[in-house]
Amino acid sequence: LFVWHLKKTGIRQIPCQFVHLCHVANDRLITFQYFNFLKRMYVTQYNKDLSQRAKPKSDSIVSPFRELQQFDQEKKVIHKIRPVSPVHQPLSETSSRNELREIKSAAETADSVTPVRAEPKDDRQWKEMKLRLDDLPGILARLSKIKLTALVVSTASAGFAMAPVPFDLTCFLLASLGTGLASCAANSINQFFEVPFDSNMNRTKNRPLVRGQISPLLAVCFAASCGVPGIALLTLGVNPLTGALGAFNIFLYTCCYTPMKRMSIANTWVGAVVGAIPPVMGWTAATGSLDAGALLLGGILYSWQFPHFNALSWGLREDYSRGGYCMMSVTHPALCRRVALRHCLALIGLSTVAPVLDITTWTFPVISLPINLYISYLGFRFYRDADRSSSRKLFFCSLWHLPMLLLVMFTCKKSFLEKEDKGDLLGGNHGRAMEIRLP
Amino acid sequence: PPAHSHNDWIGPPDKHSNLRPVIFYAPPEESPLERRLREARQEAQACDQRFWARHNRAFRQEKEEFIYSRLKAKGLEVRDETGQKATLNAEEMADFYKEFLSKNFRKHMQYNRDWYKRNFTITFLMGQVALVRALRWLRWKKKNVGN
């Protein structure tokens, strides 16, 4: 039950061990930290999957975790701690990353070593299926996969920021809110559809519907009460195109991707499109039209999904096989690795196209080349070695690669003022426009 | 769960199916609609439990057999010198996972269809029950206010 909750709280409550990891991250740009912060929430969510099969390396770190786990008996406390991911993942320092991974896998060891204590009375007991109002926010946060939603909103904001129009704060906020609501709705429906399968997979067995903390009816009502206002907000408050994209994305995710996961490996491609649409939505929210720039940003995110997901799924093959999920990593492992590598290289290509489309200056492909080459290198290693360690390296790299790429893209954004001088104004203004000074 | 409770109770995950069993509460004044809902949920629970328990057991068994046959082929014993069970690494197990998945594909397709159908029916019934209860409560409220 609390295996991965406590793992995270365990990690959180050892500041000393993480100070030397954090100090690396501390002197980065705020925006970058913002992206990374959100990404790390994603990391801790997924890290459990990767470390669940890792053979424990260091047993020495186990004891501090054991003490800390005893503190967190209250379910409520854990709910509240959960949405705030504390782990600052170091960026390019391989040694600290290894350390982090070791600690995380050690944390996982701690959890597996002390399963009885880690699963306090709650999991062994029968619970009354009554909805408690003070539990509700936590439950809904988990139902809507709030961390993933936050990441989706951040990619949409990136799309908005990259659009070559004056920055409009109200539009930005409306677009972000609408996207967030749409994402909550989609995630809730996804969980609604997948209850017995989620129960059987380690990564997902603590979801609210699986644990009976909320009834399916309430989950659907919540989804509707997020989705309908979200899409309405996008359609009426931003523009109909963004609203349509949002609605389409919800449909794609819940009605195409979710059932397809159990039918065909093509689900990964559909899922990549689902991930690519939010930045496109951000762009259309700003400009009101589907420009080449929007498609490029979508393309970058589309390509990114593959090394990210394929590397992740490499470690989950047993659960996928038993759960009946059709994933490339299980059925077509060679294809899985090939596709991941292919798309790492595609990222290089797409980064080069950006200045051609006047979205960024030519410094962008130059500056982004090192990180793109690095992820391609890891993709190649994954392709060649096809083992756990290379898949994990690739996965962790993808987590910092995307925010970094988007940040670099933003800093290399072609100045709107420059374009205005050239008399080339794209898109329209939305209400009170605020021009921000572009770097 | 205590006998006086008026709610359903959900238990820890089952050892075989990993699903959490629910004990449903049947109130004395249960309406036919509510009874239909409860019975549908009970039946669904039983179906799911049957499917997953059998499926997981088959998985475990076939995995053991696979490991055994592979170890045999390599000329190794099931238990090594220290007495620990020998395991295959992830790459060797990958063949098994692939085979297991494709073998059970049709079974999963069938189960998926049934699961979606059951899920929608139950949720729809829940909606109906909730609606009826809400209307009843409103009527009661109006009556009280009238008095």
TrEMBL record, chain A:
Keywords: Heme biosynthesis, Membrane, Mitochondrion, Transferase, Transit peptide, Transmembrane, Transmembrane helix. The keyword Ribosomal protein does not apply. It is a multi-pass membrane protein. One of its GO terms (cellular component) is mitochondrial membrane. The chain crosses the membrane at residues 241-258, 265-286, 362-382, 394-411. One of its GO terms (biological process) is heme A biosynthetic process. This is Protoheme IX farnesyltransferase, mitochondrial. The lineage of its organism: Eukaryota, Metazoa, Chordata, Craniata, Vertebrata.
Automatic annotation (TrEMBL), chain B:
InterPro entries: COA8. GO terms for biological process: intrinsic apoptotic signaling pathway. GO terms for cellular component: mitochondrial inner membrane. Keywords: Membrane, Mitochondrion, Mitochondrion inner membrane, Transit peptide. It is a peripheral membrane protein. It is found in: Mitochondrion inner membrane. The keyword Mitochondrion applies. Pfam families: COA8. The keyword Transit peptide applies. Belongs to the COA8 family. This is APOP1 protein. The gene is Apopt1.
